[in-house]
Amino acid sequence: MSDPAHFWHNPTAVRIVALLAVGLFVTTIWLFRRQKRSGRGAAIVCLILSVGLHVALIAFVPKLSMFFGGAGDAQPTVAPENEPMPVAVFAPDSDDDLSSDSMLGEQPLSDSYEADDSPISPLTLAEPIVELQTPVVAMAEPEPASDAVEIIEAAKSQIVTSLASIKRDASPDHSTDLDDVLGDWISETLAPPDAPQPTTSSEPDRPIESSVAMPAGKRQTEDRSDEDEVIRAAGSPIIDEDFASRLGNAKKIALSSTGGDASTEASVAAALKFLSQTQRPDGAWDPIATGAGRERAPLGLTRGSAGRRAATGITGLALLSMLGAGNTHQSGDYRENVYRGLAYLLGRQRSDGSLAGDASVYAAHYCHAMAALAIAEAAVMTGDPAALEATRRAIAYSRSTQHPSTGGWRYTRGDRGDLSQLGWQAMLIDAAVRSGAIDPPTSMQAGVARFLDSVRSGSAGGLASYRPGEGPTATMTAEALATRLLIGQEVPDATIRETESVLLAELPGNDRENASGLDNYYYWYYATLALHQLQDDAWNQWNAALKKRLLSTQRPDGSWSDSTLWGGYGGTIYSTSMATLCLESYYRHTVSQRSDASQRSNSNVSHRTP
Q1: Which positions, given as ranges, span the membrane (predicted)?
Q2: Residue 260 contacts residue 587 (beta carbons within 8 Å)
């Protein structure tokens, strides 16, 4: 029989043992963390095996030349010191250092540019990794001749309006938080047997191609005309009806006719300025630097400091605030901020379409949906090919994580779902369809409708709960109605009246559902979306209370404090973005004909003259 010592001098064998030991330990932790008691025996067995393997490693590893100098057979292979490393690169401008979190390609952004109306070149998707060569330090040069100055300035204007390549981050940072370490592994490796597996292909309703996106703005609508295609090709995007009130004269009409005014617009302007000033050079908003990830146990719940690594989520919310006011990466006062933010998100999108980034298990699906919704809205407003393609990828991931029977989403693949997650996913699906990135995914939409029905309660079905079988809350009731209205479901008048009775009992600044007394921007956001679509007496009462509370609590720098119900997880960017989205409700979504019909039949309506 061969000497067992030879086994421990085989680097490959030792690595396998080490991986097995760690895998058994991680499996032990997961089994013990499950709420179900089944599997505890297996957990104990895994723990014993893991401890035994660790003891063996501790005993034999010091003898190995692979970890210590010596004459062993195997030596670790080390890449040459000066060989280029494959990383993703973002260059915010020609003078800044390269950032490890970046994802802009070969052409940098300039700090100064002409703010004209010419559209920025389309966002570009590229291969996941780009070779980072040794940077060349620019030396001071004499003042160029006048002709050369004109050429340089022209080149700068082209640099700021183009995105040469966006690289998906091949090696994101990993959190030391247990949920961050285990989140993806649990969701992808330990999914329940009946859970669908991740895939970048779509269901039979419509295949999602991994090839280059369709031509900009190609919409899959029945009333699409050739004239529209010519206009879009010439650089003037055709805005979907739902988003048409964000721009130009339509915005002014919507603002004045649905309850907004100069004070709300001034508040929005201050908030957007604050958001623009807190954006990182790589295009993201930083969770930790803006106070996210602090555990305050809202409503008695703990989520392990969720939000500490939710950069894609809060970046998505900040971008939604800018897009909601009519800014895109092609036009608007904050087009450069939107441009860099989208570049960050597209660069962080994984090959399976996920935009969760490094978020923990509790925040991952929120981050994916919020970030994907921002990209989808940009796709609706501009028809940018890269945004369309990223939207398709995001929908593919959402499809793979939707529960096959309940139609819901929650924290990991195979979870049966909750309404809080569903609202964001439903909005994402709706925006993706409006952009033309996908045809209506009928099975996904049927799943959304099925889950909404499963959480309904009340005499008229106007109440809603977080999960099936639980008691209704004002927050979930608001989210359910907003989701139904904005995705196009017909909601009976009796159902609307029952919902409104709950929301009017919990007006902003007087939320009795929240015993802590903290403002609940999450609840306000969905209630505002819902009631704005109805334009009746309930909306008038809600809007008056909302404006009074938000305008009186905005800070001098344009932000809102994170001392709110969920602000500990999302920080100042979350609070400011959610408050801003509330104040943009007058024009962010057009009041639909469906809502007008409900308004005419509602006996409690107040007739507003535009």
Answers
A1: 12-32, 41-61
A2: yes
Residue 52 lies in a domain: yes
Q: pLDDT by residue (tens digit) across 533-577? A: 999 999 999 999 999 999 999 999 999 998 887 676 789 999 999
User: pLDDT confidence of 124, banded at 50, 70, 90?
Assistant: low
**Could you give the CA distance from residue 239 to residue 288 in angstroms, rounded to a whole number?**
36
- Reported as a single tens digit per residue, the pLDDT across 460-511 is 999 999 999 999 999 999 999 999 999 999 999 999 999 999 999 999 988 6
In whole angstroms, what is the distance from residue 606 CA to residue 177 CA?
52
Q: Are 367 and 310 within 8 A, CB to CB? A: yes
As for how many domains the chain has, the answer is 1
CA distance 164 to 155: 14
Residue 16 maps to a domain: yes
Q: What's the CA gap between 437 and 430, in Å, rounded?
A: 11
Q: Which of 476, 563, 603 is nearest to 527 (CA)?
A: 476
Please name the residue ranges forming H helices in 471-513. 474-486, 493-504
| Residue 50 within a domain | yes
Amino acid at 136: V
What 3-state class would DSSP assign to 596?
helix
What is the DSSP code string of 139-176? PP-PPPPHHHHHHHHHHHHHHHT----B---SS----S
Asked if 372 and 414 count as a contact pair (C-beta separation under 8 A), the reply is no
The single-letter DSSP state of residue 25 is H
Question: What single string gives the DSSP state of each residue in 174-208?
Answer: --SSHHHHHHHHHHHHS--TTSPPP-SS--TT---
203 phi-psi bin (left φ>0, alpha ψ -120 to 50, beta other) = beta
Query: Domain of 47?
Result: 4-63
Cα–Cα distance, 460 to 448 (Å, whole number): 20
215 is a domain residue = no
Burial of 389 (0-12, 13-18, 19+ CB in 10 A): buried
Structural tokens at position 310:
């939710």
